[in-house]
Design a protein that fits this description.
globular; mainly beta; Methylamine Dehydrogenase, Chain H; single chain
């Protein structure tokens, strides 16, 4: 089964309540439908966790898996809407929001109890694809604002064609939206004022297909990755003016901002490269470019880098790659030493039949735990979440070195047919990982 389109899993929308005090107001109001679901609740006593989002195809309900970082255990599973693609959480990790692209809803729940789950129904035609402090609506080319007080859509803000990603500046002044456009309409970048929910004039010009956006920690710069032009562009958030750019190659489609080292890590599956940019300078000079092409150290037969994460402690970065041969895809993670930007090692994941959209960051999405002890990879093709220990463990019964794959945790079971007597349905396809603070 092939999963979501290349960047449907990345679109914008849903006001996590970080902006609720700022984004209250009038506008067209849509009443939500709230349906409680009662799964088995996890223990409320854990400190760090990650939420893995999995889909069961375009017509079935998906799920989230709550994973305890310290115990590498499944704390609970929640059924969400149809074809979930992205998730975000409120500050303090006290509520999770999931964009359900297949049924125009946003599911929300508290991670410590999971039950009840509340579903907010979005305007007709909505296709939520990305959540930050608002919801990106691919279906209506808009950004939706939802009130935390009563769970209704309070504002529908028009942006460019096919919004796919967005970011709020840490000072909560603005939200920046990347719209990818289509074959007849070029992409665009829009900034939205948090105080009154108004869109500013388009940021810059000459965009082809912006697909990702990130904010610097000081809120003074926002960075836009345009896959069509192969550039990362720096924007001055005070004036919304373009002040610098760097080339990362046409086809680059994922960007991770490393707040510890003030860097931008960009993966390009079309060129089989990963580029590290210095975000402390507006010219964005490249610190290193690492090749994953055939003959390179991490990928002798060649492989495509799909996503990247970095440990919060600033020591290592992890690049998830996929190598397709016929109908089989082999996935692995390459470990980068951030002290000198060199390859430290690789971690093999799986070799399985190809099942998901290729060359998308959501085929192999990576995220690091807040304590830097674990890296997680949502392996869409394999129906599992790879859990990598970044540190050594010499405790009885374990005794493994750093950067070791501990397990491939199965995703929740799907609803498809059982192919053998006494068997079980195939697992769902994980597409996103959301770590707690």
């Amino acid at each position: 089964m092939r999963i979501l389109r290349h960047f449907r899993a990345a679109a914008l929308c849903f006001l996590l309540f970080v902006l609720v005090p700022l984004w209250t107001g009038c506008g067209d109001v849509y009443r939500p439908v709230a349906t409680p679901i009662t799964p088995n609740p996890p223990s409320p006593n854990f400190n760090h966790f990650v939420i893995a989002v999995s889909t069961d195809g375009p017509n079935s309900f998906g799920a989230t898996t709550d994973i305890d970082v310290s115990g590498d255990t499944n704390l609970g599973v929640a059924q969400v809407g149809i074809a979930p693609v992205h998730a975000a959480m409120l500050p303090g990790a006290f509520r999770i929001f999931v964009a359900d692209s297949g049924d125009s809803t946003v599911a929300s729940f508290a991670p410590t109890t999971i039950s009840p789950i509340v579903f907010t129904t979005l305007p007709a035609g909505s296709i939520p694809v990305f959540i930050a402090t608002a919801v990106a609506d691919d279906g209506n080319n808009s950004v939706l604002v939802i009130s935390v007080v009563n769970g209704i859509v309070t504002n529908q803000i028009s942006v460019g064609m096919k919004p796919v990603a967005m970011v709020e500046t840490p000072d909560t002044e603005k939200i920046y939206v990347a719209s990818a456009g289509n074959s007849s309409t070029p992409g665009s970048v829009t900034s939205i004022n948090a105080s009154d929910k108004t869109a500013n004039p388009p940021v810059g010009s000459g965009w082809v297909s912006p697909v990702w956006v990130a904010s610097r920690s000081d809120s003074q710069r926002v960075y836009v990755l345009d896959s069509g032009t192969g550039t990362v562009t720096a924007i001055d958030t005070f004036a919304d003016g373009i002040i610098g750019s760097a080339s990362v190659g046409v086809g680059a489609n994922y960007m991770f901002y490393d707040s510890k080292l003030n860097r931008l890590n960009v993966t390009n599956p079309a060129a089989d490269t990963m580029t590290i940019l210095d975000a402390s300078q507006d010219s964005l000079p490249a610190l290193a470019t690492i090749s994953f092409a055939a003959g390179s150290v991490p990928c002798p037969a060649g492989c495509a880098p799909l996503s990247i994460t970095a440990l919060p402690d600033g020591s290592k970065a992890y690049v998830a790659t996929a190598a397709v041969s016929g109908t089989t895809v082999t996935s692995r993670v390459t470990v980068i030493n951030e002290l000198n930007n060199t390859i430290k090692g690789t971690v093999a994941l799986t070799s399985v039949p190809l099942a998901c959209t290729t060359n998308s960051p959501y085929e192999l999405f990576t995220a690091a735990s807040a304590d830097s002890s674990r890296v997680y990879v949502s392996n869409c093709d394999a129906g599992s979440i790879g859990i990598i220990s970044t540190i050594a463990d010499s405790s009885p019964g374990d005794n493994f070195g750093p950067d070791t794959l501990i397990t491939n945790m199965p995703a929740p079971l799907g609803t498809g047919p059982i192919t053998s007597p006494g068997g079980t349905p195939a697992p769902q396809n994980p597409v996103f990982i959301l770590p707690s603070p």
